[in-house]
Amino acid sequence: MVIKQKHLIEFQIYYLLIVEALIDLVHFPSIIRYVLDANFIFMFFLMLPKIKDMINDKIFKPFNYYAIGYMFAIAAFSIIRRTPLGQVMWAVRNNYFFIIFLFMCAYTLRTNDVKRILKNLVYFQFFNMVCVLYEYFVLGYYGDNVGGMFGTASGCNGYLNIYISIITAYVFVLYSNKKATLQTLLFVVFSSIIVAALSELKFFYIELVVIVILATVLSSVNAKSGIVVIVAVLTLFVGLQVLTALDPGSAELLQDFDQIDEYTKSSYGGQIIARATPFSQINKYFFDNSVFYNLFGYGFGACESSETFGWANSAFSVKYGFLQYRNLSTSMLFVETGYIGIAAFMAVFVFIFVLAQKLKQKYANIRYSYVFAQVVSVIVIMNIWYNSSIRREIAYLTFFCLSVFIVQTRDEERQRLSEMIKTQPVKKSYFKKKRVY
Question: Most buried among 43, 69, 206, 223, by the most CB within 10 A?
Answer without folding.
Answer: 43
